[in-house]
Model the fold of this input.
Amino acid sequence: MSLTRLSVHTNGPGLYEVTREIRNFVHEESVSEGLLTAFVQHTSASLTIQENADPDVKRDLNEFFARLVPDADHPSMDWLWHTTEGPDDMPAHIKSALTQVSLSIPVIDGGLALGTWQGVYLFEHRRTPHHRKVILHLA
Done:
């Protein structure tokens, strides 16, 4: 079993690819077969596996989530109670609840068993820059 922590600096909402960092960790551990678990230690960010070839995918996902869960100052969100940390905070919690805070990825032949166009992303849901912590566990 191996464990490490990634620190991911974000500059606002969006998908930040961490595939290379995760691949490097798996490679350094020299594990032939196993299971990698990635877990983000935050309630206003999440993890996802998405296409990493066409940047329009990231753009469309960002737009979809912005429309699905607008900021608290949008008239459709006037029912929110948790607004003391800014208009993007509670919507960020909702977006995180709709996505995932952990991922499980098989390791086969010493590498991540991702598909050809798949990448691992930290999905930042807040407007302000953050340093997000992602724990990687390889067993």
